[in-house]
Amino acid sequence: MAHYLIEFRFQGKAKSEIKRLIYDIDKKCNIGNTKNKRPIPHITLVAPFSTKDEKRLINDFYNLCNNTNLMKFKINGFNIFEKNNVLYLEVIPCENLDEFRWNLSEKIRSYCTLKPIDYNKKYYFHSTIAMNLSDFKFNQVRRYVSKKQTPKFKHVITKVTILKNSMILREYDFLQRKMFDRRLAKSKKVNIRTKELLKDYFAGRHDANIVVKRKDKFNLLDWFKSIFK
Predict the structure, then answer these.
(1) Positive or negative, the Cα torsion across 42, 27, 16, 89?
(2) If 127 and its partner were Cys, which of 89, 195, 196, 219 is the partner (CB 3.0–4.6 Å)?
């Protein structure tokens, strides 16, 4: 049976800096996690799961994304899951990111086999830096990062991705308000367009929430009509 995962993948400068951080810690502490697997900085939104209804999954994913305003979060430095010997970057989500993750879990749980963590509304958003560590390596990593500058920055979620067996199945672009298959998700032309829209968004020339706002405006108009009627 196929295995699915839904995640946000870092883009641009943040992606480069986090990758550099992962490689640096892996090398300096001689962990070896990056030897056979290229790190892809990300935030898991729905842990690995299975389903027999892929078509419904894609449709529900699209509808929820298409009706969600642009989401943001903050990176608030290093933190640890001491029980599992994991070092991660602590993520502080905006309110609608927290709602999006929970709504997504609620939407697909009736026909998907989710992990226990995704049945819990309380969720610790994070981006893993080092994992599968022995107690010795874990303490070594903690000592090393205690001397490093604490990563703190803000980030916009431009895309959310569904993976199938570790390959992109679909990717929703919140700036273009479109969903792409694997080929288009990896297209340079598509990604250049997203970067252009992100620049326009920060400059105030592009409203990434226009689709949602139009829907809200329509609902408000209906409400007024009902009053006068």
Answers:
(1) positive
(2) 89
Judged by DSSP in three states, 94 sits in coil
Report pLDDT for 211: 52
Instruction: Give the amino acid at 97.
Output: L
Contact 153, 14 (CB under 8 A): yes
Spatial contact of 114 and 68, defined as CB atoms under 8 Å apart: no
Q: Supply the pLDDT for residue 35.
A: 85
Amino acid at 223: W
Q: How far is CA 146 from each of CA 23, 32, 79, 139, rounded to the nearest angstrom?
A: 17, 20, 10, 11
**CATH for 4-228?**
3.90.1140.10
**C-alpha distance from residue 165 to each of 1, 171, 186, 212 (Å):** 9, 15, 17, 32
Per-residue pLDDT of 50-82, as tens digits, reads 999 999 999 999 999 999 999 999 999 999 999
Closest residue by Cα to residue 169 from 73, 57, 87, 66: 57
Domain boundaries in the chain? 4-228
Look at residue 227 in the predicted model and tell me its pLDDT. 47
What residues in the chain have per-residue pLDDT under 50?
212-218, 223, 226-227, 229
SS3 206: coil
The pLDDT score that the predictor gives to residue 210 is 56
Neighbour-count burial of 130, counting CB atoms closer than 10 A to its CB (0-12 exposed, 13-18 middle, 19+ buried): buried
